[in-house]
Amino acid sequence: MSPEERKELILEIAAALHPVITTTLSDEETRWVKMAIQKEAQSIELRKAIIEKTLGSLVWFFLASMGYLFVDFLRNHGLNV
Fold this sequence. Notes:
Elements: H1 3-17, H2 27-76
């Protein structure tokens, strides 16, 4: 077997083992995939916003509660606030 025949054989074997599969999506399928990705991104942003707003509200509630307890402590110990 000559080197050229050997190269041809190797190329034929490689082509047989790794067939090229070309699948393309139609315009409608591509549009659907893009919309699905966008919907998932919006869902993630919504969850993030809800978590941020909830944590912010909890911090303000804690600060207001501490202020109320401090004022109540002062009133109970004879100071008029």
